[in-house]
Amino acid sequence: MQLVKCQISDKGDCNIFTIKLEDHTIGNLIKQSLCQDPKVTFAAYRQPHPLQNAIEITIRPKGYAGVKLLSDNVHSILNQVSTLRETFANRVQKYKEKNAYHGDR
């Protein structure tokens, strides 16, 4: 797991998080998670420049700390990915056991 550098700035009632070394893949996952959070009024992300390897996530929280909301949602995504990985590995193992008589294809 790599350390992610994050800068925080406030613009009105929004928090803007600049996350370096990330792109649209993570930005979209985080935005989708934040948009489903009832504690968030608005969430968006953008990549300021195509040649920069960084994204900006904007959050307008409903009376909650933006840092906490971002942290909670990222942890939720990590838990979902971990569950998906375990489920996939278990299903692959069951498939291999069921089809062991065929050998490697």
Automatic annotation (TrEMBL):
Keywords: DNA-directed RNA polymerase, Nucleus, Transcription. GO terms for cellular component: RNA polymerase II, core complex. PROSITE patterns: RNA_POL_L_13KD (PS01154). Transmembrane segments: none annotated. GO terms for molecular function: DNA binding; DNA-directed RNA polymerase activity; protein dimerization activity. Its main location: nucleus. The keyword Transcription applies. Residues 16-86 form the DNA-directed RNA polymerase RBP11-like dimerisation domain. It comes from the Eukaryota. One of its GO terms (biological process) is transcription by RNA polymerase II. It holds the Pfam family RNA_pol_L_2. InterPro entries: RBP11, RBP11-like, RBP11-like_dimer, RNA_pol_Rpb11_13-16kDa_CS. The keyword Nucleus applies. It is found in: Nucleus. Belongs to the archaeal Rpo11/eukaryotic RPB11/RPC19 RNA polymerase subunit family. PANTHER family: DNA-DIRECTED RNA POLYMERASE I,II,III, DNA-DIRECTED RNA POLYMERASE II SUBUNIT RPB11. This is DNA-directed RNA polymerase II subunit RPB11. It comes from Plasmodium vinckei petteri. The lineage of its organism: Eukaryota, Sar, Alveolata, Apicomplexa, Aconoidasida.
